Each structure stands twice: as C-alpha cells, then as structure tokens.
Amino acid sequence: MSDKMSINRYGELEILQNEIRYSYSVTQSKIVDQQEAETLYKDVMSRVLQSNGYVVADRIEMVNDRVVFFFKVQGLKGYSHLRSIPFEKQLLYFKSLVHIVKQEIEVVLHPLNFLVDVKEEMVKTYMVEIEKIPIHQKKDKVEALRELVLIAMTNRTSILGKPEKADFFDQRDHVIAFAEDLLRCKEIEEIERALEAHVPVVEEPVERKVVIPLPSLKFWKTWQMPFRRKERSHAEEQETRWPTFFSSRKQQVLLGTLVCSIGLNVFFVQKNVQPVMAANQEQKAVQSEITQVKEEKENVQKEKEKYEKEVKELVAQLKIAISENKKLSEQIQQGGQPK
For 274, which of 129, 233, 265, 291 is 20 to 30 Å away at the CA? Predict the structure, then answer.
C-alpha cells in the first residue's frame, strides 16, 4: 500500500510511478455515484478543450467512501524538475503557468498540482475545482504565482518573504533583476509583461555561402601590364626576348589561348568546389545528428535517474506528512478538538 498525503482539506493524494490518484471524501462532497462525479467533471473540462495545460483524468471511480480521480502521468515530471532547467528556458514554463492561473477554472495552487512536460516545454495541472468538490483556502492568484515561480528558482520550499541572493540556483544579475521585478508585480498582467521583458531574443544563424569569384577584366589588364611596359621600353630592340615573343602572330595566339585556359580552369574549379563543400557539410550534419542522438540517449538515462530520485523524495515527503498527520490526530484525541 503506497503512502497518501492530505491536500485540499478533505482530499488525499497518492503519487505512483506513472499514475497519480486524487481522492475526495464522498461525505463532504455529497456526490451520489460515479455517474454524477463524471458528469460534474466533464462539465468543467469541456471548457478547456482547446488548452494543453490540463491533464485529464483517465477514469473516475467510487472506492469505499471516496471519489477517486486517476491520472496517467507517464513522461511528465514533478514541479521541482524546473530547478534543473536553465533560467532562459524556465521563462517558457512560467508563461504556461500564468496561462493556467488566468483561466476561470480554479485549480489547487500548490506545487504538487503542477507537472512539467519537457517535450512540450510547458507546465500542466490536474486538480481542478468542480461542483461539490470545491477548493478550500483559496490563495490570491498573484501571490500564488510569485510563490510558485520563486520556488522553482530557489532552494526554498515556501516563500515567506524576499529570498536572499544565496537562495537562488542561478545568481546572475539579470536573474535576480527578474525576481525583483516579479516581487513588485500587483497584477497578473504585470507578471506577463515581466516575463516578456526577460525572454531572450534568439537570433537565427545566417547561412553563408562560399563563392570563389572569377578574375575580373581589371585583373587581366594588370597581369598583362608588365609585358606591355616591357614591350614599349624595348621597342627598339626587336631581337630581344619579349618583343620577339610578341612579334610573332602565332605566339600571340598561344598567349591568348593560355589566358583563356587559365580563366576556364578557375571557372571549373569553382563548379567543382561547391559540390565538394556541400558533401562535406552533409557529412558534418550526419556526424552532428549521430552525436545528438548519443547525447539524447544519455539525457534520457539521466532524466530517468532524476525521475526515480524525485519519486523517492516524494515518497519520503509523503511518509513525513502522514507521520505528522498521525501525531496531530493523536494530539486532537488527547486534547479535544482545536478551536
């Protein structure tokens, strides 16, 4: 039998490896049967069909004196996983968190009611208010948002005041500046603006093409200039090497052929270089994909280890909570009902 944790006054939470069970007292809710529970739940969830921010119950059952909601959470992580994500990416998750809290549907504003979807890069919730199962002790939404965001950014489990810089996992100046902006927010819209102001602008890399230019006409004129100067300076010496070389029509044709050959050679070199460069780029892309696959495999293994660790931590927390509840029950039995 797994450990259970009290939540939402008359509710209980049971966290398993790939499933979460949220149950509520039938006596307090006055729900007649399973059909009524399903009808009430569908009425609420039909209002958020276009949103991906909600984990919908897989099934609802009446077990003893409790109505139990079963949620499949395979691939999702606990809210504390946000602490291992870089600040720049955390902002995306915080934006989805704000979107959930802004909705008319009330949710339990507790870290245990929020899960992290790494693939979709967003936060999701599952415990919602329905008719006959209200949310007790509702918090101010702005205050709750501030607390949830700061819990993800710091080593604190609750926010009772302004966190110290040493409490933050990332202590860079712009991270601390965001936290200070957050604490000054009085409305949800102000929190949204603070998030937008700190979202980094990612520039797309510009593809650069390597082009080997053909020699210009100016190049050929410059290349031939020394010969022309030599010819002019020694025009009187017809028997010398360069004037004799250019004096023959046949030799001039040979020189022109040589120049054309050089130009064609440069042209075809350019044509051949581009396919070779493209092939090299393809090879690099394949190698990069292989490396990426290896890294993803390692990341999956690491995420699996982290998930197992988180489950163990949650189980330990549940045991502590149950122990405290038992002690409190014993104190109440000995001293009477607290006022």
Answer: 291
> Coil, helix or strand for 7?
strand
Half-sphere exposure of 280 (CA within 13 A, CB side): 7
Instruction: Tell me the C-alpha distance between 301 and 309, whole Å.
Output: 12
How far is Cα of residue 47 from the mean position of the Cα atoms in its chain? Answer: 27
Q: How many other C-beta atoms lie within 10 A of the C-beta of residue 61? A: 14
Dist. CA 167–CA 160, nearest whole Å: 13
Q: Give residues with Cβ within 8 angstroms of 227, minimum separation 6.
A: 242, 246
Give the whole-angstrom CA distance, residue 72 versus residue 57: 7
Question: H-type helices in the chain, by residue range?
Answer: 26-29, 34-45, 87-102, 141-153, 173-184, 188-198, 217-233, 241-247, 249-335
Tokens of 335: 């001293």
Whether pTM > 0.70 for this model: the answer is no
Q: Identify residue 152 by its one-letter amino acid code.
A: A
- Tens digit of each residue's pLDDT (9 = 90 or more) over 260-310: 777 766 666 565 656 667 767 777 887 887 888 788 888 888 888 887 888
**Which tens digit of pLDDT belongs to each residue from 220-269?**
555 555 555 555 555 555 555 544 444 456 666 667 777 777 776 666 65
Q: What is the DSSP letter of 64?
A: T
- Angstrom distances, CA of residue 282 to CA of 205, 207, 285: 17, 14, 5
Cα–Cα distance for residue pair 99/101, rounded to 1 Å: 6
Give the Cα separation of 336 and 332 in Å (integer): 5
What CA–CA distance (Å, rounded) separates 278 from 281?
5
